[in-house]
Design goal:
There is one protein chain. Helix content is 4%, strand content 31%. The chain contains one helix and 17 strands.
């Protein structure tokens, strides 16, 4: 495993985006403190601890996606981020506990209630397949496919489901998605970030 050392990127003011692979375990104290151009953070399965002041004073940081492998988020880990800063995480997770304790907006990835608007789907054998997407007027470019749609577990993204959706900038695909159809993201020229869960076996 890999740990990001204390103050490793302190004051790296040109850094705009950060994502962490499964080999990363701990994000050290003040690791990204004062990275004033950092706009988004994706902390995927594998990371277990986010230490104090890890992302403090990142004044442009609008959101952080935190998977439920994270069990410990220390004091002021996200202090003094952008006004309206939000944490995206699983219900009942350490991310939700931290958000609630620090009056930070929390968005559930379990339901995707704020981000699944416009997603269409079909159901077969009590499992949902995403078939399309119409961008809401207030769409911010970050699309979160929820784990369930209409009460059905989402297991597939269908052929051409997001074809030519140029407004999508980053995409969260939840664990449980098994297959992604042909040309599912063809023509999505604005996408700069996609995380695939281990559950995906066919693309």
């Amino acid at each position: 495993t890999l740990s990001i050392g204390n103050q490793a990127f302190l004051g790296c003011t040109a850094l705009t985006n950060v994502s962490f692979g499964k080999n990363t375990d701990i994000i050290g104290t003040g690791a990204f403190n004062g990275c004033t151009s950092l706009e988004s953070v994706e902390i995927i399965d594998g990371v277990t601890s986010i230490n104090a002041y890890a992302f403090a004073s990142c004044s442009k940081l609008a959101n952080a996606t935190i998977y439920d492998s994270v069990t410990d988020i220390e004091t002021n880990a996200f202090a003094n981020c952008k006004t309206g800063f939000a944490i995206y995480g699983e219900d009942g997770s350490a991310a939700q506990t931290y958000a609630d304790s620090n009056n930070i907006n929390f968005v559930s990835l379990s339901t995707g209630s704020l981000f699944s608007e416009g997603i269409t789907f079909t159901v077969s054998d009590d499992k949902a397949t995403v078939t399309g997407f119409e961008e809401p007027e207030d769409f911010n470019g970050q699309l979160f496919i929820p784990k369930t749609l209409g009460g059905y577990t989402v297991t597939a993204i269908g052929q051409s489901a997001f074809r030519n959706k140029t407004g999508i900038k980053s995409l969260y695909i939840p664990d449980g998605i098994v297959s992604i159809g042909k040309q599912a993201f063809r023509g999505c020229t604005s996408i700069d970030s996609v995380i695939f869960p281990d559950s995906v076996t066919t693309i």
